[in-house]
Design brief:
By secondary structure, this protein is mainly alpha-helical. The chain is built from 5 helices and no strands. Helix 2 crosses helix 3. The mean pLDDT is 94.
């Protein structure tokens, strides 16, 4: 999940800060970034909001970083 790491770094967050926002431990979040553990859809939604992008961008289904209009 290289994009996940890039989004975090570009936003100026540490792994610990994002883990806290997601209510998970830092090592769990590290496993998400390293592709060791799958990210639950609920957390993908939260990450898309935090990084102001789409889930599709986070998981590599699109190269368009701008999120879709929210409903």
């Amino acid at each position: 999940m290289e994009r996940l790491k890039m989004l975090r770094i570009n936003s100026g967050f540490t792994q610990a800060a994002i883990a806290e926002k997601l209510h998970v431990r830092q090592n769990t979040y590290s496993q998400y970034e390293n592709g060791v553990r799958d990210i639950p859809i609920e957390l993908l939604k939260e990450l898309a909001v935090i990084y102001e992008t789409s889930i599709d961008y986070i998981v590599g289904l699109t190269d368009e970083e701008t999120p879709y209009p929210r409903i």
